[in-house]
């Protein structure tokens, strides 16, 4: 029986580092009036697309559970608002998603073990 571990240590580190880098760039864009604000929003849109693809490759649906749907919707919505997007929203929500996926995988693995061990 193969244990499910969709976001391993390397990917968790890489995704979180990328999110922190994006948040840092958006923070600096915020200090450039008007043009920086538009660049920050454009950067957020591109980053959301990249994260969606990245999570799909890892077999994690961007919005396949209601909690993940609301957290991603909330993240994208806040990232579209100039000034608010200077806060580390991508990083916080990415860590939240990683923790949630790891809990889902742990629960799935326990259910599979219990199912495998119980007599038919």
State the total count of DSSP E strands.
Answer: 0
Helix content: over 70%
Query: How many discrete structural domains?
Result: 1
Secondary-structure class: mainly alpha
Order of helices and strands: HHHH
What's the number of helices?
4
Please tell me what the overall shape is.
elongated
How much of the sequence lies in strands comes to under 5%
Protein model, in words:
The chain is mostly helical. It has one domain (9-112). The protein has four helices and no strands. The chain has helices at residues 9-29, 35-57, 66-79, 89-117. Helix 1 (9-29) runs antiparallel to helix 2 (35-57) and helix 3 runs antiparallel to helix 4. The radius of gyration is 17 Å and the shape is elongated. The chain starts with 8 loop residues before the first helix and ends with a helix.
Strand and helix map with partners:
Layout: H1 9-29, H2 35-57, H3 66-79, H4 89-117
Helix pairs in contact: 1-2, 1-4, 3-4
List keywords for this structure.
mainly alpha, 72% helix, elongated
Question: Quick recap of the structure?
Answer:
The chain has 120 residues and is an all-alpha fold. It contains 4 helices and no strands.
